[in-house]
Specification:
globular, 12 helices, Lambda Exonuclease, Chain A, five-stranded mixed β-sheet
Length: 279
């Protein structure tokens, strides 16, 4: 599939570096602001550093292996359990100094053999799912969009995008597929996908139909169940343009940018809990 000019082919490192330099607002940064402007301000100022966790690292490896394929995974990761303890004949544990020293010397991030076996099963499950495999049959992986939204420079990195059929796919991992509907709410996935969809529409410079957004969720345990959730165009449009009444949490993306501009101009960054909450 030919890549449209506005869907940039840049590395993940370049994308995240631009975010850290505060050159662009991302869906994650906007979600921070939606939750708490004071938290957003301390984050962009570097007072709060978002730590990298084992779960985040595994999530990145999952996206590369399932979405971009084994060749890209092999180019970016090392699969190994690390050095062997001569006394036991077994690999050093991941919490040992010997393993930490070895891992620091590796030119690429390390994925353990057990985690890689899990990745293989997760990939097999996703590509065996009758709907998920069709969604991922044609499209472009990890494309970046950079545009302006209400005068704000924004960027979005799409797991998978089919511009010919006009749909977006985002891969999610979860512990329990039966509770994924709560993950959608708790982690703001609808707002995230609305951000992506609007970035697509803005970058195109035309007025196509709002792209429907699919979430592919896969469990991180046997039997590695997979679910495909469609976030329809009307839900996406509501998240972008409709003010959903909530006196201490605003969900309208357009209103978020207006409020962000106001905070910058006034220098006032509220927590959203300055008033009494009525329930």
């Amino acid at each position: 599939m030919e890549r449209p000019k506005w869907l940039l082919n840049i590395s993940s490192d370049e994308y995240h570096a631009a975010t850290k330099r505060n050159e662009y607002t991302t869906s994650h940064r906007l979600n921070l602001f939606r939750k708490c402007p004071a938290l957003y301000k301390k984050t962009i100022d570097g007072e709060i550093v978002e730590g990298d966790t084992a779960a985040f690292a595994f999530g990145r490896a999952t996206h590369v292996y399932i979405i971009e394929g084994k060749e890209k995974f092999d180019a970016e990761y090392v699969v190994s359990d690390g050095p062997t303890n001569e006394k036991t004949g077994k690999p050093y544990g991941k919490l040992t100094a010997a393993y930490a020293k070895w891992a620091a010397e590796q030119p690429k991030p390390v994925v353990g053999a057990e985690d890689f076996a899990m990745l293989q099963k997760m990939r097999e499950a996703v590509h065996a799912h009758p709907v998920a495999k069709d969604l991922l049959a044609s499209g472009i992986a990890e494309g970046t969009i950079r545009t302006e939204w209400n005068g704000e420079p924004v960027q979005a990195r799409l797991d998978w995008f089919n511009h010919e059929q006009n749909y977006i796919v985002d891969l999610k991992t979860c512990n329990d597929i039966d509770r994924f509907r709560f993950d959608i709410r708790d982690f703001g996935y609808i707002e995230q996908m609305a951000f992506y969809a609007q970035c697509v529409s803005l970058a195109r410079g035309e007025s196509p139909m709002t792209p429907p957004c699919y979430l592919i969720a896969v469990e991180k345990k046997e039997p590695y169940r997979v679910a495909v959730v469609l976030i329809g165009a009307s839900t996406i449009d509501d998240a972008i343009h409709s003010h959903m009444a909530n006196e201490f949490l605003r969900d309208d993306a357009d209103a978020m940018f207006a409020e962000l501009k106001d905070c910058r101009e006034t220098g006032v960054w509220p927590t959203r809990y300055e008033r009494i909450i009525n329930i």
